[in-house]
Amino acid sequence: MSWAFLRDLLSGVNKYSTGIGRIWVAVVFIFHLLVYVAAAENIWKHEHDEFECNIKQPGCENVCFDHFFPVSHIRLWALQLIVVSTPSLLVVFHVAYRENREKHHNQKLYKNPGMIDGGLLCTYLISLILKTGLEIVFLVMFYKLYNGFKIPRLVKCDIKPCPNTVDCFISKPTEKMIFLCFLVATSCLCIVLNLGELSYLVFKYSIKYYLKRHVKKQQ
């Protein structure tokens, strides 16, 4: 899978972000995207083939694997990366709209089309709320699908066509557990950064608006 489009998207958003937003882009790019492509993808690459049960009943291993891993970790992470980065397109589209509007009217309508103010501020805040909400949704989804943030060494399965309760073994559970904890911690860090940036912008522009009103009253 090529991740060039996601890299270009994050690079484009970086131009219009605050300092905290640039840290978020760096965290997503380095600790999510690069770690996923360089290491995590290879660790889970043959997870189905390496899943073994102590019985050779036809269909038993497939049914047990599907029960304990209804969605592949690695595919869910890929989906998370794409979905969580998508709200940033709102900011890019809004800036593009401003630039096209200036071209259409053939005059300078904004001090800087990429400056976070007015309508673009609302779009930016909405994108932060969406990114935070989506990160939380995916963390909850992980927790519910896999009964917690853990990789067991052994799972017991008694689903038909298995004739009785069988032991099934997951390959490289310790290595997978380390990367799982790392990626969950990275998602939590992204949530903290998004909430921090959201609070910073709301506080900054609330103070700015209050001072502006205060000055008008004085005049």
Helical proportion, percent range: 55-70%
The CATH class is identified as: Mainly Alpha
Output the structural class. mainly alpha
Tally of DSSP β-strands: 3
Architecture (CATH level 2) name: Up-down Bundle
For the CA atoms, what is the radius of gyration?
Answer: 23 Å
The CATH superfamily is: Gap junction channel protein cysteine-rich domain
> Unreliable segments (pLDDT under 50, ≥5 consecutive)?
none
| Biggest pleated-sheet summary | 3 strands, antiparallel
Quick check: average pLDDT? 81
Strand order of the largest sheet: 1-3-2
Order of helices and strands: HHEHHHHEEH
Number of self-contained structural domains: 1
- What is the third-level CATH name, the topology? de novo design (two linked rop proteins)
Indicate the multimeric state: single chain
In whole angstroms, the N-to-C terminal distance is 61 Å
- So what's the overall shape? elongated
Strand percentage lies at: under 5%
Count of helical segments?
7
What does this structure look like?
The chain has 219 residues and is mainly α. The chain has helices at 4-14, 19-43, 60-68, 73-85, 88-105, 118-145, 173-218, and strands at residues 52-53, 154-157, 166-169. It has a three-stranded antiparallel sheet with strand order 1-3-2, covered by helices on one side. The model has no long low-confidence stretch (mean pLDDT 81). This is Gap junction protein. It is a multi-pass membrane protein.
